[in-house]
Amino acid sequence: VSDIIRTIRDPEKPNTLEELEVVTENGVEVQEIGEEEYLVIIRFTPTVPHCSLATLIGLCLRIKLQRCLPFRHKLEIYISEGTHSTEEDINKQINDKERVAAAMENPNLREIVEQCVTEPD
Q1: Which CATH architecture has domain 1-117?
Q2: Which strands make up the sheet holding 28-34, listed edge to edge?
């Protein structure tokens, strides 16, 4: 799972989320919850406590994992506790299927997400 998300690029900077230490191996947890089904929990740390792109980063993590995980899974994505001023609201948003689907219907937002999750050549 770490290998999948480490290459996601930051929406504003030319760096990956791993280079910025937004995602780390310690923030990835995988638990077996059924036969060949897993719970994947990701905790990420925005670069600043008022990061306006935290929701977008959470969306990128979700989309990339939904596309790339080779097994059945339930995905939970959270901001590391105490690292963002509105972490509760953002956690609700990035774990709400309807909100995620609505966000991905926005062509501008979808284009940004695609740029962030697409592997460099």
Answers
A1: 2-Layer Sandwich (3.30)
A2: 28-34, 37-44, 72-79
